[in-house]
Every structure is written in C-alpha cells, then in structure tokens.
Amino acid sequence: MVAVTADRPICANLNRCGCNWIADPASPFGLCFSCRLTRTRPADADAVGLAQYWVAEAAKRRLIFGLDELELPIMISDGSVGLAFDLLSSSQSKIMTGHQDGIITLDLAESNDAHREALRESMDEPYRTVLGHFRHEIGHYYCQLLALTPHRRDEFRTLFGDESASYEEALQRHYMTGAARDWQDNFISAYATMHPLEDFAEVFGHFLHIADTLQTAGELGLLPRPEQHSSNAFSTSGSSRKLRASLLERPMAQVVPETWLPLSKGLNQINRSMGKPDLYPFVLGQPVIVKLAFVADLVASAEPLAE
C-alpha cells in the first residue's frame, strides 16, 4: 500500500472499473500497468458490458499481481509480441474466450454469476471463475514463452504429449466422446485431456491457484509455523521478498502432499460445515504433481523482463 501523491497518481480507471493501482508514469492516459494491458474494453454506451468489465478487471488485477509476485516476464504487446487483453461484451455479438499469439480474449458475460454457473453445469465442470479463465489462458501464453523452447520442448512432450497434433481434430474428438473414465489418474481436469496445449494451460492455471492461495494462507497464519515445519515457504510477511523466492524453497513434490492437500482438505471441510460444496473440487494424481513440478521449474528458471 502506498499513498497517492502528485508524483504517484491513482489510475485513471478508478471510476471506470474500480482500479486503485498507481498510474504508470509512462502511460499517456494515466493508466496503471494492469489497465495498460487491456487493449479493448466495452464502449461507454454499453452499460451492461461496463458493469461486467468492472468485475473482469478486478480478476485481471489479481492475475497480474500473482504473476508479478512470481516475477514472471510480462511485456505489454506492441502489436507483434507481448501480452494484451480484449475484454469484450457479448451483448452485441458472440465472443469466444481464448488465447492467440499473446492476445487473451474474455467474453465479459463470464462476469455474470448466473451465466457462468449455467455454463459450468452444462459443461459438467467442477470449477469456473473469471480469474480461473485468466489463469488458464495466460498458461497458453507462458507455454509458448517458457515451455515450447528448444531446450524444454522435449520435457514438455514427455509430460504432456506432442503439441503439434491437430488441435481441431482433438477438439472435435473431445466434444464427441469426452474424457476417458480414468482421466483423473493423469489429468487435473477432463478438459485437460483434450490436447497437450490444454493440459499445460490447465496445469499452469492450477499452479497459479496453489501459489496464490498458499501465499494468502501463509500471510494469515493458516499454515504450519516454522518450528512445526522445516520452512513455512509461503509467508512473505516481514520481508521484502516476493512469492517466487518463498514458493521455490521446497519442490512441488513436497509442497503438494505436505502443505497444499492438508490445507485444501481443511477448506473443503469448512465449506461443508456451512452447507456449501467443496471449495477445492480436484484430485491430484502423481502424474499431475509431476506436471506441476515442471511448471514450478519453468517459473524458477524464467528471467523477469524489464518493462
């Protein structure tokens, strides 16, 4: 938290989408770094779209905060390379949420709880949120940037499969036949079974879920104290280090069974105590934990990119 001053003004989108970040001095429009990443938003006359845009930008700020905590490279698109967001209202035309060449498109109707829940049920998904969409789609971005490189591609293919396989054929097959009955043995979600690229994006998004949740739990004292564990690797309280340094103190093969699964089990039980469905409706098989470890290693090896 920092004080707003003349030299550190609040983002110009404060009243447009509730952004309370400090404006980037390099922005000619008085926008913060997160808002500068948005390439397209609803028109001022689109009242429905603007209300949904408010929700989407809040989720996007959470995404960008998490990426910054992990010190992952984020470069604003210059039209050919980098990252940008198109937050589009489907009140006028059909919008497909997805990623292509660093451009993440979100159908803002996903910001409507009733709409999103109806889709979640119709697609038999255990979990569907705006932040979840962003974390999945950003997985595609970092797949190209970090995983499908000459020195990591073979590892990727060993774990996830051949990314050059026809995506269209895989998509048609998935919606015709669905996932195998035993998909939970090797995948984080049924959708991950569709294609190696979707498998990676699902695992990457899940890694972001785990990292953010464990950091929050650590800050709130919900994880074992240091004397009860060799290291509380997820609390940055009282230090200037970011989550990346904290998260990577222990391998994911330890983090998941020793820290994440006990925490998520407890959160599920709390939800049940309140008559709610499980907060964390996922099963992590050993192959999924190995994939999460690969993603964690990619994060550890990534070089932050100066803006």
List the strand order in the largest sheet: 1-2-4-3
Order of helices and strands: HHEHEEEHHHHHHHH
SSE-based structural type: mainly alpha
End-to-end Cα distance, whole Å, is: 21 Å
Number of helices: 11
- Radius of gyration over all CA atoms, rounded: 20 Å
Please tally the β strands and state the result. Answer: 4
Which word captures the global form?
A: globular
Largest sheet features: 4 strands, mixed
Strand content: 5-15%
Mean pLDDT: 90
Helix content: 40-55%
Low-confidence stretches: 227-232
What's the arrangement of secondary structure elements?
Elements: H1 14-17, H2 33-36, E1 38-40, H3 47-69, E2 84-88, E3 98-100, E4 103-107, H4 113-122, H5 130-147, H6 153-160, H7 167-177, H8 196-219, H9 243-247, H10 252-273, H11 286-301
Parallel strand pairs: 1-2, 2-4
Antiparallel strand pairs: 3-4
Helix pairs in contact: 3-5, 5-8, 6-11, 8-11
Question: Can you tell me about this structure?
Answer:
With about 300 residues, the protein is mainly alpha-helical. About 45% of the residues lie in helices and about 5% in strands. It is built from eleven helices and four strands; from the N terminus they run H-H-E-H-E-E-E-H-H-H-H-H-H-H-H. Strands 1-2-4-3 form a four-stranded mixed beta sheet. A hairpin with a 2-residue loop joins strand 3 and strand 4. The longest helix has 24 residues, at about 195-220. It starts with 13 loop residues before the first helix and ends in a 6-residue tail after the last helix.
